Amino acid sequence: MKPIARALADAARKLSGTSDTARLDSELLMAEALGIDRDRLILAPPAREPPDRFWTMVERRIAGEPVAYITGRRAFWNIELHVGPGVLIPRPDSEVLIASAIDHFEGRAPKRILDLGTGPGTLLLAALDLWPDATGIGVDASRRALSYAAANSRRLGFEKRARLRLGDWAQGIAETFDLVLCNPPYVADDEQIDAAVAKHEPEEALFAGPEGLDSIRRLAPEMPRLLAADGLAAVEIGPTQSAAAVSALQRDGLGARVATDLAGRDRAVLLTWA
How far apart are CA 64 and CA 58, in angstroms? Predict the structure, then answer.
């Protein structure tokens, strides 16, 4: 067995007690250690010994640190975002918000986009990548998250189209938007979550009161004034929260429906003018 293949197999075995995606984790860490992308690693692995850095990263993963923090990056939709400790890691579940927006704006494009709780710029920058003529605002209460968002915006070439602001949700925002995106905290305070997530990712981006609905209920009165005619607001929710979230968000003439993720779980409430 060639050295890289042998190292990947050994790492996957070491990680199997820690991760449900041990082989994938090994490949992502090896690609990062070698400075190549995963496709090249799989299709044409270098004929060399793995760098010592690879085994250091494997040990960090065994200790529970997220792969995205170890590599410093995470793919989301069609973009790659740089992330690090103190910033919520983008997840595939959130892609349902972007997919729902594509469906809603079929044949046209949003001009103004608002991302509430933007984190490292996840939803805003993915939307700006899809619609080259759009501009938008990303809001977050975390200075650290906004520093990542600003760096990602510059790296992706969106600096002139994306404005980032430190803020408390939509407070101080007076205009209306064609597309409002929001991935708020929605985990109940006493809910058991993955130990690695609880240890490493920011608590304020995860938990939202005894039912996990505090942030959604706070946002609900703001949505009617933020959403333009023919626009769409997409708010991510937990899979058991659809009824309560719809009840809170469907107000003042807004209609609501629920979108599901790839696993068929309720994942977003979509708001339009009825």
Answer: 10
59 and 88 housed in the same domain: no
DSSP states of 62-102: HTT--HHHHHTEEEETTEEEE--TTSPPP-GGGHHHHHHHH
Single-letter code of the amino acid located at 3: P
Query: How far is 253 from 251, CA to CA, in rounded Å?
Result: 6
156 and 28 co-located in one domain: no
Based on the structure, what is the number of domains in the chain?
A: 2
- Helix (H) or strand (E) run with residue 34 in it: helix 22-34
Per-residue pLDDT reduced to its tens digit, 138-148: 999 999 999 99
Tokens 């002139």 sit on residue: 160
Distance CA 24, CA 149 (A): 26
pLDDT at 1: 67
Q: Are 231 and 114 in contact (CB under 8 A)?
A: no
* The last residue of a domain, from among 23, 38, 63: 63
Amino acid at 231: G
Closest by CA to 29, choosing from 61, 2, 76, is 61
105 and 237 both lie in a single domain: yes
Which residues of the chain carry a pLDDT beneath 70?
A: 1
pTM over 0.70: yes
Q: What is the DSSP string of 152-195?
A: HHHHHT-TTTEEEEE-STTTT--S-EEEEEE----B-TT----H
Give helix 22-34 / helix 3-15 axis angle, nearest 10°.
130
